[in-house]
Amino acid sequence: MNKENLKPICHLLGGLLIIVIAFQFFEKEILNLSIVYIILGCLLLIVAGLNKWIEKHIKKFSVLFFLIEAGAFYYASKNQLEAEDSIVHSMLVAATYVYILLALFFLFTKNSSEQKHSKKRRGRSSSGSSRRHHHSSSNSNNGNAHQPFI
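^ thats the sequence. predicted structure below, dont judge the formating
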């Protein structure tokens, strides 16, 4: 699997999980927080759908949303939705760490578009110097090109 395809899948799963958390907040009658989590979940679903377009215009934008998702999971784990020793609490803490690691991974790795651009830059600089060299040798028809100017 390509790491560029991993970003929208992670945002999609994170958005769906945050919407589920929003419904848990709604069941606990924490209405303000449930509205915030529903809006965040919908925003993450939009980011998952438009990920390539957003990353094309704003570099490393997904890293910000991975950190926002990690913060949302952390807050939900500390808000006592379930008992401290429950499986839901453990999974929310694990999701927090996973999304922090994903943010760090995508922060410090180059994506494929950046690698293509760096290869093009290297290729241009080497071809540009060969053009200049070729150009200077074609202008020197008299053979005095390598003699010092006195």
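The chain has a mean pLDDT of 78.
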